[in-house]
Specification:
single chain; mainly alpha; Fumarase C, Chain B, domain 1; Fumarase C, Chain A, domain 2; Ribonucleotide Reductase Protein R1, domain 1; two-stranded antiparallel sheet; 19 helices; 61% helix; binds arginine
């Protein structure tokens, strides 16, 4: 049997080489090479610990660290020859280390297994991704706060059932997205704590006979805690699933936000302008300017929900401990993180550039009987029971539909047909400003409250 054809890392007990297709089928290097930096980081920490534990000499440790550092440079210079026959990122780097430094390279794997190695790498990688994603969420939230502050007084129709409901401040509307993103941020910060626990030292599944000192690797790698059970450490991917769940919620929020931007840029709404750099044209219809960025984000949400479902399914049938199924965790996880990060980036770039068409929004709010509730509340203040007021205003609206007039456009006499409790102080409540200013409590749409919410938002971001 030719030795070159059987993987040297585990070929000892094999009497025939792996089938060429099976080698490709079982290999993960095409996608897991992305973990190289974290793999090398983990290996350097492991070698450092092995020296302190008396397993490696200082010279051996230094040769390993030096070799790994040079391999990292080779990879980053695009000079590394990734070999599918070496299966994955771990064995590619280890084989190259042995090429470079000789027999000492073979000592690196003492007291560990690819099972704890890969679990460690993914956690280190995901921790960095979460940090980058958190930074993008904050950048997007800063953009929302700036817009909300600038447009606290801009009035648009608020909707329920996509029908005009009540006037709201455009700033207030934007702060709803801010609030959702704050929860997304919280969820990811919380998820990060459980990502940041160290499986290294679990070895294949049962731990190792070498006198490893896990406190050392834990400290060197910046983990918050050491995983307390070796079987669990090498097998569960709940941290990745949890990330995909948090990422799915964030994408769901961005998808809803996208849907509004798509509606608002349409000729039918015409509420906002998106700068050309976030749009594309049509190859056939010269007049078109399509809101591609929000449409794509809305579409991409499906990839992340798919990753969540995929990982749950991947995990649910696995007995303890490590199973090769887990190699399938990477592509969905990478894709979910990339998709969320890119979508946030696109939004963080785009949101500060949104320009509201103030007059169009205002006109839409004015035309839709959006102050009908204010008229009912006014009559309640005059002493009528709310249900009767609702009925009275219903008649007024019906008259408005027939006569083509909004409530604020009716004369006092016209309004008094519906109730003699109406006097000329009614017009103050029928204006859009009167309506929003009246909702002056925490979480309400009065511009003063919007400014207070912006101040709270700024304090929240400053404390991160
Ligand atoms: N490429 C593998 C993975 O991603 C690494 C661990 C493989 N361990 C093993 N014993 N086959 O999960």
């Amino acid at each position: 049997m030719s030795a070159e054809k059987t993987n040297q890392s585990w070929g000892g007990r094999f009497s025939e080489p792996v089938d060429a297709f099976v080698a490709r089928f079982t290999a993960s290097v095409d996608f897991d090479k992305r973990l190289y930096r974290h793999d090398i980081m983990g290996s350097i920490a492991h070698a450092t610990m092995l020296e302190q534990a008396g397993v490696l000499s200082i010279a051996e440790r230094d040769a390993i660290i030096d070799g790994l550092t040079q391999i990292q440079a080779e990879i980053e210079a695009g000079q590394f020859d990734w070999r599918v026959d070496l299966e994955d990122v771990h064995m590619n780097i280890e084989a190259r280390l042995t090429d470079r430094i000789g027999i000492t390279g073979k000592k690196l794997h003492t007291g560990r297994s690819r099972n704890d190695q890969v679990a460690t790498d993914i956690r280190l990688w995901l921790r960095d991704e979460i940090d980058a994603i958190l930074a993008e969420i904050t950048r997007l939230q800063q953009g929302l706060l700036a817009q909300a502050e600038q447009h606290a007084e801009v009035i648009m129709p608020g909707f329920t059932h996509l029908q005009t409901a009540q006037p709201v401040s455009f700033g207030h509307h934007l702060l709803a997205w801010f609030e959702m993103l704050s929860r997304d941020h919280e969820r990811l910060v919380d998820c990060r704590k459980r990502v940041n626990r160290m499986p290294l030292g679990s070895a294949a599944l049962a731990g190792t006979t070498y006198p490893i000192q896990r406190e050392i690797t834990c400290r060197l790698l910046g983990f918050e805690a050491i995983g307390g059970n070796s079987l669990d450490g090498v097998s569960d991917r709940d941290f990745a699933i949890e990330f995909c769940a948090a990422a799915s919620l964030a994408m769901m929020h961005l998808s809803r936000f996208s849907e509004e931007l798509v509606l608002w840029t349409s000729a039918q709404f015409n509420f906002i302008e998106l700068p050309d750099r976030f749009c594309t044209g049509s190859s056939i219809m010269p007049q078109k300017k399509n809101p591609d960025v929000p449409e794509l984000v809305r579409g991409k949400s499906g990839r992340v929900f798919g990753a969540l479902t995929g990982l749950l399914t991947l995990m649910k049938g696995q007995p303890l401990a490590y199973n090769k199924d887990n190699q399938e965790d990477k592509e969905p996880l990478f894709d979910a993180a990339d998709t969320l990060r890119d979508s946030l980036r696109a939004f963080a770039d785009m949101v500060p550039a949104i320009r509201p068409r103030v007059e169009v929004m205002r006109e839409a709010a004015r035309r839709g009987f959006s102050t009908a509730t204010d008229l009912a509340d006014y009559l309640v203040r005059k002493g009528l029971p709310f249900r009767d007021c609702h009925e009275i205003v219903g008649h007024a609206v019906k008259y408005g539909v027939q006569s083509g007039k909004d409530l604020a456009e009716m004369s006092l006499d016209e309004l008094r047909q519906f109730s003699d409790q109406i006097t000329d102080d009614v017009f103050a409540v029928l204006t859009l400003e009167g309506s929003v200013n009246a909702r002056n409590h925490i979480g309400g749409t009065a511009p003063a409250q919007v400014r207070a919410a912006v101040a709270r938002g700024k304090a929240l971001l400053a404390a991160r």
